[in-house]
Write a structure and sequence with these properties.
Structural class: alpha/beta
Helix content: 25-40%
CATH architecture of the largest domain: 3-Layer(aba) Sandwich
Strand content: 15-25%
Distance between the termini: 27 Å
Order of helices and strands: HEHEHEHEHEEEEEHEEEHH
Largest sheet: 9 strands, mixed
Number of domains: 2
Amino acid sequence: MTPISLAALAERVPDGALIALPPDNSLPSVALAKALIRRGARNLRLVGVPVSGLATDILIGAGCVAELETSAVSLGEAGFAPRFTAALREGRIRLRDATCPAIHTRLQAAEKGVPFLPLRGILGSDILAHRPDWKVIRNPFGPEDDEIVLLPALSPDIAVFHAVMADAVGNVWVGRRRECATIAHAARESLVTVERIVPGNLLEDERLAPGAIHATYITAIAVAPRGAHPAALLDEYGYDAAYVSEYARMAQSEEGFRAWLEREVFAAEALPA
């Protein structure tokens, strides 16, 4: 598989697409999020797998997002996600509330090719009142008063994540972050940024094969060094707490966010740190 440019990768994301994004502790492609902002993407529908972080917040702040399904939006130690909070208060995005197990279960249903999967832990919670698409039924294998929740399969249009490496065939190595494999299996397409392209075939290496996603599930790849920054990338580089803290401070206001956006996304010299 021949890598394409980051801008070309962003062009493959149509407006209105349903996009699955991993959280900040699991290989987010912040580089592609920034490229989508530069492209002027609009009306995106995001799914946090299972929570959302910086990439989601900057896309919301830039006006790229119409809808978000997630169990939380947070910048971790830096606090709440300011642009998400502002957009929600002002009614500029639709929030579809979820839980971590519910999102994983729905993606696993799509991964398995079944229309739904059951889940029990959310019974009795308020979330069911806000999710009419989740059905409570009697457990057909249990006693008369035993209930279960059925969750419909979730098949995103596009899975987006960052990885350490890809090989020439298009296999992608994500190490122990198997939730990225789940969203790649569940989604119709997977757009991946990587640190580098390596020779050979990852699936032929006994040490690397268990952490690799087969090229069958990968649509396109772009090389984006430090593309997860400021998130950590496995053993490649650590979490940049100072960068996130500065973002959280600047993005408290619309003016501050626009200044951050100009410097970190649009400026010609804006490159991964």
